[in-house]
Automatic annotation (TrEMBL):
Segments passing through the bilayer: none
Cross-referenced SMART domains: Flavin_Reduct
Domain Flavin reductase like: start-end pairs: 26-177
Signal peptide segment: none
Record PANTHER family: BLR2425 PROTEIN (PTHR43812), FLAVIN REDUCTASE LIKE DOMAIN-CONTAINING PROTEIN (PTHR43812:SF2)
Name of the featured protein: Flavin reductase (DIM6/NTAB) family NADH-FMN oxidoreductase RutF
SUPFAM superfamilies: FMN-binding split barrel
InterPro entries listed in its UniProt record: Flavin_Rdtase-like_dom (IPR002563), Split_barrel_FMN-bd (IPR012349)
A single GO molecular function term of this UniProt record: FMN binding
Amino acid sequence: MIHDDLHSYEPRGGHGLPHDPFNAIVGPRPIGWVSTRSRAGQVNLAPYSFFNAFNYVPPIVGFASIGRKDSLAHIEETGEFVWNLATRPLAEQMNASCAAVPRDVNEFELAGLTPVASQRVAPPRVGESPVAFECKLSQLIQLQAADGQAVDTWLVLGEVVQIHIARSLLVNGIYDTAAGQPILRGGGPADYFALGEKFLMRRPR
Ligand SMILES: Cc1cc2nc3c(=O)[nH]c(=O)nc-3n(C[C@H](O)[C@H](O)[C@H](O)COP(=O)(O)O)c2cc1C
């Protein structure tokens, strides 16, 4: 079937809908739950759904800071961050950690989470999260539009230098994605998803 009844629009001119569908379409997205520590020792935790993995060897993950936020400022100072898996049991705490609070407020305390010392980087990981990646900044890129105009968004890319996985998520040595209960972000002000159907499909030879 070819779709011919389309709502088509130029984003620069507005979407003409009650809600911008963009991030509902590119979804559900994994969440980059990022902990950082400033040079002075201030700890920060915040979720970023413009997040993904970009490379296997070395493993590289990245997230976009829309505007200059505390996480970005800390990473610029120290070159380090930790990615923590946001899970269904930790959904409320993840949400609490996004509150726009002054820079000296520690979101670990705000959300009732336990900071646990990392091995290779200074920012702590979320002790309650079953998976964490310790990361070192590899590239920091300010985004630009097609016309070259600078955008107030920074893409933070980091090499994963240490990985922690709760052994309970390793079934005969295989990481069980569903058992990790990741939460995923949809669109609108409040849409989240949990995992549903899993299906297998091999690449063509
Ligand atoms: C699920 C979720 C996803 C979010 N994704 C992003 C994102 O991709 N980029 C961004 O700049 N802010 C995102 N935010 C908002 C930030 O978490 C929020 O601005 C936070 O206060 C930033 O913290 P900081 O200033 O302490 O670094 C998201 C919030 C939530 C709850």
